[in-house]
Amino acid sequence: MSGILFDRITLIGIGLIGSSIARDIRDKGLAGEVVISTRSETTLKRAEELGLGDRYLTSAAEAVKGADLVIVSVPVGSSGMVAEQIAPHLKPGAILTDVGSTKASVIAQMQPHVPEGVHFIPGHPLAGTEKSGPDAGFSGLFKGRWCIFTPLPDTDPEALSRLRDFWAALGSRIDEMDPLHHDKVLAIVSHLPHIIAYNIVGTADDLETVTESEVIKYSASGFRDFTRLAASDPTMWRDICMHNKDAILEMLARFSEDLSSLQRAIRWGEGDKLFELFSRTRTIRRSIVEAGQDVDAPDFGRHALDPKN
Ligand SMILES: NC(=O)C1=CN([C@@H]2O[C@H](COP(=O)(O)OP(=O)(O)OC[C@H]3O[C@@H](n4cnc5c(N)ncnc54)[C@H](O)[C@@H]3O)[C@@H](O)[C@H]2O)C=CC1
Ligand SMILES: O=C(O)C(=O)Cc1ccc(O)cc1
């Protein structure tokens, strides 16, 4: 138990991320009241069955009334529409935040709707899995993981400090970044790996000389890791690709160049070149493990690797 940080918290979108936040709020007693809104009746009903909040509404506009903290957890392509719906109903002094995987586009979509007196602080917890929906969430998802804020230049320090306290109560480590820089960093560490995974699994699926049953049967190798990422939600990843287009294309150009160089080294039997690259990348992995950011870190890794998930 951490104690009440906000009298009323409204969660818009109750999928993997929204429901994980809801579970932590409930378990740690961080809010006087939790109001949940999502546009699908079925998802809302499921959230109620799971006991994720105190009140459940399909209308986001109704749900934000009187809320001290509003957290938008919807696919990034829907953030502008949600902001437009809720804007006239936000309480003066309220904090409005999001969890979207891209930041410059979310800011461009949401900020024009945010009324004077409401503190809009964009955020992104770097924690998740390939699952989606309210059943996929779990408490402790954010423990030991980074949460990056990309505050706007005139952000109220008091509001920022309250939001930092909230994410700290969920166990997150907190950083701040310029939105465009965030989008570049995430393009290489998160968006490209997913795109590469979608691509390699698609390539395997298209092969004429290797059957689908062979791919499934023998995939207990490197390929298996790619299939986990490639099982991620299509709506979410379509939106990320469309809303972080420039940074992703920049990283893909670099990636393709480096891949061509690797292809050339293999073609010409340049063993030393291959050995040098594979040794360099190995040290990156070691640094990640040493920093506690590998899959065996906190609850995230164990959950994601559990065959039931
Ligand atoms: N899945 C992950 O690993 C991570 C996702 N994110 C970001 O978090 C956000 C949510 O992702 P997930 O929870 O994984 O997705 P999800 O698919 O599990 O849940 C999305 C939720 O948004 C609702 N929704 C969709 N459009 C809506 C609208 N117009 N109005 C109201 N509700 C709407 C859906 O009904 C659902 O409840 C996305 O922006 C994603 O980029 C951030 C970190 C990690
Ligand atoms: O499942 C994985 O490996 C992830 O990388 C989850 C994830 C997806 C999107 C984000 O913006 C942050 C984390």
Automatic annotation (TrEMBL):
Prephenate/arogenate dehydrogenase domain: residues covered: 7-296
Which GO BP terms apply? tyrosine biosynthetic process
Enzyme Commission number(s) from the entry: 1.3.1.12
The superkingdom listed in its UniProt entry is Bacteria
Q: Which reaction does it catalyse?
A: prephenate + NAD(+) = 3-(4-hydroxyphenyl)pyruvate + CO2 + NADH
The keyword NAD belongs to this UniProt entry's keyword annotation: yes
Identify the PROSITE patterns for this entry: PDH_ADH
Q: What Pfam families does this protein's entry cite?
A: PDH_C, PDH_N
Q: Which UniProt keywords apply?
A: Amino-acid biosynthesis, Aromatic amino acid biosynthesis, NAD, Oxidoreductase, Tyrosine biosynthesis
Q: Which GO terms describe its molecular function?
A: NAD+ binding; prephenate dehydrogenase (NAD+) activity; prephenate dehydrogenase (NADP+) activity
Q: In which pathway does it act?
A: Amino-acid biosynthesis; L-tyrosine biosynthesis; (4-hydroxyphenyl)pyruvate from prephenate (NAD(+) route): step 1/1
Q: Give the record's family classification.
A: Belongs to the prephenate/arogenate dehydrogenase family.
* Name of the protein in question: prephenate dehydrogenase
User: What is the scientific name of the source organism?
Assistant: Rhizobium straminoryzae
